[in-house]
Specification:
Length: 294
């Protein structure tokens, strides 16, 4: 990877890692479902007038928007509103890698490799350890909802595999047209018109900056650069960079929000990261060790 593209990869990781702190700031003034609606309205318009529609069937575009956009962020925003710390959210959300493996086996008939299974077991142990610490700066409801967000992201990944090769930026932009109305319906139902009116009337510069960051930074810029990297390098070379997202998420939340992990939470976080590393590189490492020991 060229130095310039390496820098772009690191920009994406920082933008996505800081995303969780920004979400937490936004949730101070805007209810979760309304925040989701505003985020995706801003991400879709006016971008849809400049980005070509991806050549995918409408039903799959709807499925993508309802899972990876609506489902993931409805659960994630709600989780962070009810007590999931930003740093831990960035980490637990990465369990999507293992939900994706499970759904791929269930719906696509794929098979787990030994490295996948080992990584899943190690990460699951870490998640259980984190879940048992629900009384230490984290609610059990927030933890469970974050797992729900990870499962929705994973379902979106399965939908994406149905597309084959597709322009990722176009998919994100046009997929962003799907969630605003469902988000608004959920906001009316769960948060009520009074809360919506108060939030819209009270929109300040901080909230507007949050929306700009979520729509243009985390969504359009992040996926745009990620798509560029995937078009120039093998996925196996690009995907491991996503392991750095929770590193940035945990460190930025500690620095900017004062979040701190307890000893068992830290141990659980390390196990989750180890599980993710084994999932990505375990097969290669096993093959390398066999060659060295042969």
């Amino acid at each position: 990877m060229s130095p310039r593209d390496l820098l772009l990869a690191l920009v994406v990781i920082v933008v996505w890692g800081l995303n969780f702190v920004v979400i937490m700031v936004g949730l101070h003034d805007v209810p979760p479902m309304l925040l989701g609606a505003l985020r995706f309205m801003l991400a879709a318009v006016p971008a849809v007038f400049f980005v070509k529609q991806p050549q995918v069937p409408l039903r799959w575009l709807l499925a993508y928007g309802l899972t990876i956009s609506l489902g993931q962020f409805a659960f994630l925003f709600s989780a962070m509103k009810v007590g999931m710390p930003a740093g831990l959210a960035s980490l637990v959300l990465q369990s999507q890698a293992f939900f994706t493996l499970f759904f791929a086996v269930l719906f696509l008939g794929e098979h787990l490799r030994r490295a996948n299974l080992l990584g899943l077991l190690v990460a699951a142990a870490g998640l259980v350890l984190i879940g048992t610490q629900a009384d230490r700066g984290m609610t059990l409801a927030g933890f469970v909802l974050t797992l729900g967000a990870a499962s929705m992201w994973a379902l979106g990944n399965i939908v994406t595999r149905k597309f084959g090769k597709v322009n990722l930026v176009g998919l994100v932009v046009w997929g962003s047209l799907v969630p605003p109305l469902p988000f608004l319906a959920l906001s009316l139902w769960l948060e009520g018109p009074t809360a919506i009116e108060l939030a819209l009337r009270g929109l300040g510069v901080d909230t507007l900056l949050v929306l700009v960051y979520l729509a243009f930074g985390a969504t359009l810029l992040g996926y745009g650069l990620w798509s560029r990297l995937l078009s120039r390098y093998p996925a196996s070379q690009v995907a491991p960079f996503s392991l750095l997202v929770p590193v940035v998420g945990l460190s930025s939340s500690a620095l900017l929000l004062g979040e701190r992990l307890g000893p068992l939470q830290l141990a659980g976080a390390l196990l989750v990261m180890l599980g993710l590393v084994v999932n990505v590189w375990g097969g290669w490492l096993y093959g390398w060790l066999r060659l060295r020991l042969a």
